[in-house]
Amino acid sequence: MSISKRFSAAVFVIASLTSIPALADWALNMPRGVTDISHKVFDMHMLAFWIMCVVAVVVFGAMFISILNHRKSKGAKAADFHESVAVEVVWTIIPFIILIVLALPAARTLIAQEDDSNAELTVKITGYQWKWQYEYPESGVSFFSSLAEESRNARRLDSGIDPNTIENYLLDVDKPLVIPVDTKVRLLLTANDVIHSWWMPEFAIKKDAIPGFINTMWTKVNETGTYRGQCTELCGRDHGFMPVVVKVVEKAEFNQWLAAQVESQDVQKQLAEAPQDTVEDAEKASAKVIAAN
Q1: Before 50, cis peptide (omega within 30)?
Q2: Is the pTM of this model over 0.85?
Q3: Is residue 199 within a helix (H) or strand (E), and if so which, with residue range?
Q4: CB 196 within 8 A of CB 180
Q5: CB contact at 8 A, 133 and 145
Q6: CA atoms of 227 and 40, how far apart (whole Å)
Q7: Residue 25 in this model has a pLDDT that exceeds 60
């Protein structure tokens, strides 16, 4: 090997090694997620992936071996035959078996994804241009979830703010959806104007929000934390600025949060309905509630 080729090889190896830390953050595979359904979906994905790898190795391996060992330069002559019943039977049976292996667990997973019975909590989600409304029908709590102010300011033209300095840029909201851990939550999904789509990759759930219709889905999250998704249906000018954020907390913490929301909304209702001479007292009561929570 010449000196120039050795030098080029050394440079390539060094460049490859130095790029490993940067590549470590790449999410090349789908997330395993934090729900039983997301685990099943991930396992299905990996099963199909490895089956495809085996098929690719066999097919391309046979093709490359045939090209190398039966090329014209080695004096090989093309075989003169019309058909082979045995080969046709084999390449019919093998795909059929593969389809059965994939279809059985896929059918079970699809059935489980649609079974929202015995839910412990119901949340109604309504899509708007360009935000989400979350409602807890049993308690009457309702609020809107919009893009966080820091991201909103940074996205403006000539804002002078570097988006790289904003944590979770375009993936943060002012008020996230809050649900308890280890609880089956039914999600009722609709829209107020155009079609939106509510997607949470860590939960392996995604469904369209259609005006005039209510779609249902469910989730049961196994780990507390904050999870982020997006609207995945092109819904207008600011489609890219209506993220989905779900905060999963312990059941006791969720009950405290929900009680505080109920109390806060009651105070706000009293404030709106109060006569002018009692507005000041209502405002003090509202500030007290907010300070306590």
Answers
A1: no
A2: no
A3: strand 196-200
A4: no
A5: yes
A6: 19
A7: no
